[in-house]
Amino acid sequence: RAKCSPVCAWENTNCCMAHLLSKQDDFTNQLSMLETVIRDAGHLCIFLPKFHCELNPIEMYWGWCKYHYREVQKRTFEEAKHCAQEQLDVCPTDVIRWFINRSWRFMSAYQLGLTGRAAEWAVRKQKQHCQVSQAAMMSIEAVLSHPHDHI
């Protein structure tokens, strides 16, 4: 078979030619066209994990724009289009920087081994730097080591 339809079963390792080829080194190491265009322009192409919007400042920016868009009264489709463009343009630079720093703090928390609510708490506790501080980590360890004292 050339290709499974619609997709290969998860547990299959050699079900079709497309699946076998996808496992070969020259295919797995091949950059996509998107990656090639981005790198040729002198930028880094970083693919973030799915379902982790806290690692992507663009998601926070988009959420900020959508929130402010909903706050504006729009009577016509033309007004709605104009408002959408306006909201994308008016997000302050310091807010965008805050989104980027927040993403970096989440990355730092995950690199330190925190997950879930502990990572959220550390990011909320740490405000001034791009990473989670040692003091925040010590606070988390104190809370986790004596959970009955903080209920």
UniProtKB/TrEMBL annotation:
InterPro entries in the cross-refs? RNaseH_sf
Q: Name one GO molecular function term.
A: nucleic acid binding
Q: This chain belongs to which protein, by name?
A: Tc1-like transposase DDE domain-containing protein
This chain's source organism reads Pisolithus microcarpus 441
What does the record give as the organism's lineage?
Eukaryota, Fungi, Dikarya, Basidiomycota, Agaricomycotina
